[in-house]
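Contributing new records

If you add data, match the layout below exactly. Sequence lines come first and carry their own label; structure lines follow with theirs. Keep one chain per record. Anything else will be rejected by the validation script.
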Amino acid sequence: MVRVSGLASGMDIDEIVKSMMQAERVPLDKLTQKKQYSEWQRDDYRSVNTALSELDKLISDGVGKQSSFIKKTVSVSNPNAISVKNVNSTSDFSGTINVTKLATAATMTSKPINEEDSTKGETVMIDLQQPLSIYGLVEQKISIFAINKDGGFDMDDSKVKKPYNLTIKPTDTLDSVIKEINANSGVTIFFDQTSQQFSITAKNTGDAKDSAEIELNGEFFTGLLRMDTTNDIAADSKNARGSLGSNATVEYNGLTISRPSNTFQINGAEITIKQTTKETGPVTFSSKADVDTILDTVTQFVNKYNEIIKKIQDKTSESKYRSYTPLTTEQKKAMSEDEVKLWEEKAKSGTLKNDSTLKNLLTTMRSSLYTSVSGMTGTNTLSKLGITTTSNYLEGGKLTIDEDKLRAAISEDPNAIYKLFMSEGKDTEKSSQGLARRLRADIQSSMKVITEKAGKAGYVNNNFTIGKAVNGLDTRISAFEAKLVKLETRYYNQFTAMEKAISKANSQSSSLSQYFS
């Protein structure tokens, strides 16, 4: 549409229409500001939910795990002979060990290479990079039985030993097959280029008793690699081309025991034997709670809890500046960057002021942590650990730690602390549940309510309350913008008609003047 802009009247039509439209845009600006405020509020809710989720995960990975409270330091009188670490023992342990024999792995070596190839009359040298097809081994299936870490064999449902199977492909070389076997089977193959011999070693130590620890099937092993079919046959051969696997033998607290591996567990402690103790004598060991690590776990929980209650308290008590509404695009253009920043700091303030969901969460969180665990004696409150609230009521129940008292509680009975935090309680009776268990229930319940209200990243607007409101505002904004376009067009049409009328009148006036002159 061609718009006439004051050529006849001398008026700045564009500026007049712009001024008239500014007044008409006021309701639209209010809708846009309301949408912006809703989005700020949504983001603040999500920020709180993110913080709550972090606390929930910290509990789950820290004070909510028994493994966090069974961490121990272990003293060993001869660390060159054995090492000991706790795996899942909930109580301290100690003992004496004499190492009689270390566990060994079964081995096999190949038969010596023939000095002359009987058909070619020359020494046959093995090239790891040659394709196995030249040996006629393509599509041949080979299999390996090897002892497992428990000193036995993997079995199928019918209790038959399960082998590692491999079918040789046309593109395979000796090198590629050896790498495949080393990576995925229960043995390791080594080739010595100088002697042109192979060795095979079981990855797991131990004596398989009535069976060979290594059993090989296929022309690949017996022909190309010149191996015996089992390690016990190799061990019995004239030149002793192999060895049997053997179990470790130790005397533990006076009791002689045998294990297939040099690393084994007794009563939740993992023991690794490194050398015999015939010359050095018995090795003693003992454990105690790893106070520093457990203290750090509890401290992390307290610090994160304090961080959350401060965040929620700050957001729910934040001042709301009603005269500082979200800025329109035109308003931002008239302000400096710093002015916009300062304005929006106040405009964004108070989005969650006195929010009932968050204020109720603060109340339930405090109650969950400060109320003793019913039915539990001894360590049944945080105060027994030296964890109390600060005397400043303005801090909203911030926790503080008496480190000496907490260290003493950890040293005395770390499992009692775990029970204080995570006792399952009786059925759904909250008062008998552990403090952290209650807290997680409070957090997850509130997170659900907040998510229903504000959604989370990736959510479609129609799936949460604020999102639906934003969609509704978008619809109203679009309709109002269309209305303004029509109104602006009407204004211009009216001014265009006026310009044409003035132009016509001016033309007639000019003609009359010429006539009378």
